[in-house]
Amino acid sequence: MDQKKNINSAFFSWLPYLVFFIVSFIYFAFFAKYLFFYQEKSSLFIFSYNFLLENHHQPGGFLVWLGKFFSTFYFYPVAGAAILSSILTLIIISISKIIQTLKGKECSFFSVIIGAALFYLHTDYRFLLFNSLGLLLQLCFFLLVNKYLTRLKGWGAAILVPLCFYLTGGFTWIFLLLTILYFVFDKENKGWIIIIAFCFISFITLYLSKEFLFFQSGMTLMTFPFSASNTGSQKILFLSITGIISILPVLAKIKIRMPEKLRISEFLIGLITSIFVVIILVIICLQRFDNKTKQYFYVEKLFYNDKFDEVIAFNTTNPPTNSLTIFLNNIALCETGKLNDLLFHFPQSPDGKTLFLKWEMVGEILNRGGYFYYTIGMINEAHRWAFENMVMKGQTPEGLKMLIKTELINGNYYVASSYINLLKKTLFYREDAKKFEKLLSSDTAFNSDMDLSKRRQTRVESDFFSITDNPYINLELILSADSLNRKAFEYKIAYMLLKKNYKGIAQELTEFEKFGYNRLPAHVEEAAIALAVSNKGKLHDMGHLQISKNTEQRWNQYLGVLQQYRNDVKSAEPELRRRFGDTFWYYVFYK
After folding, report:
1. Predicted pLDDT at 168
2. Domain ranges in the chain?
3. pLDDT tens, residue by residue, 92-104
């Protein structure tokens, strides 16, 4: 009977942790998969000794390396959810066990509040895993010293300081504060002696690291790898959580005496705590779930897989509001030859920011802006963007693949092979590396790849300094040297449409035949028929191409709606938006 009672008691004491893991896993695995996509694509773990050394050049490097290792399994969202939920649950259990060690009584309710706060932080896709790993390791070090190395009477903490500092860098502050506060209250073992020795060893460790071992500034050594960007701009909340964890020995001394009548059984404590976990995590999920971000990363995933038609179809069904989504969508339109047929079917920025991105060393611009140049055949410029992003932020899967593709297109097989060898040392991109490796043997092997061989044929051969602050100028430079670059021409026309450059459009109407068009794109037809209004009803010269009957009919219908509202543009706007919101005409009137 007593054995059964003990089993039930153990089950309900562990129930809050189990519930926390399950709710966390369900959310991350099935609703917030985009978090794992972003973080997996933001770093690349390479299984090599050199990569290990690169990430151990300063204290805290191991923590970043460990975070990258676990993040590589984010390739599969279910695995990512299991890893992240396990780490958060282990933090909760560790906090509870520390309180039990200090107080003699487990406190699951307090620990799940800390866990919920960390869960909240991780719902931001920019909050990196090594932050929580850093917390977990400090808690484990503290438990090791005060629960499993008790024979050393606290001297184990002093011994572990150099190791803890080397492995976790700036996160060691948590272990230091936990240990110092613990020995402040340890009167039996003369804790003040250990505190003095502990602080002395900590100071010596930092001094030797700064002056003789790592040659980093004191501030860097004391904070790395913590940074505001790696916490998703949630620095204050994260520091608050670490502060609370650091003073656990003080919090454990607080005693709240409950009247005998209000005391409840362990069964009810476990049940109430579990219900609280479900309620608080569900509230956080509802508040923090970002459908806009989810849609963007889904589009990016399709884009990286060259599924351009699916990108367009998804954005048609789910109208994008994110400028980066529209930027990738415009590339997909150009790759499928639909840029000037469907440009205004999606929101566009009149200044051209949705067509091409200006050079920027921070944020996500550098990681994605090069794809515009890759599409229009500026292979060297696409390579430069990818290379600079690698220098600034380290290797990423798609960045490394872009470097490989640009080197292959340029015929630099030796350099391409070095990048391919790196990709072969990853866990989930070996098959991509093998496909690229088959193209190294000769130009004949390279030509077997239809996409890359076509891009080699259409690449910009002439060399010139690209103007990243005004990408439109690059289009002019390309077309002056390569008069048959159709994709560059399409972007040029699209930019003219966005800028409402009537004169420029009129001058380019005769050029479409030269680029192999057997009809004018829909938006160009709309611009041409609108231009006729200012040309006394006469269409500009379009060579042998003609305006389609459908466009003429839609133009007459457009004018008919205006006439219904007595040419009152403001009053006619709702009806014109409903029927012609995807046309150049509507854009000219209302954007």
Report:
1. 96
2. 2-255+262-288, 500-590
3. 999 999 998 888 7
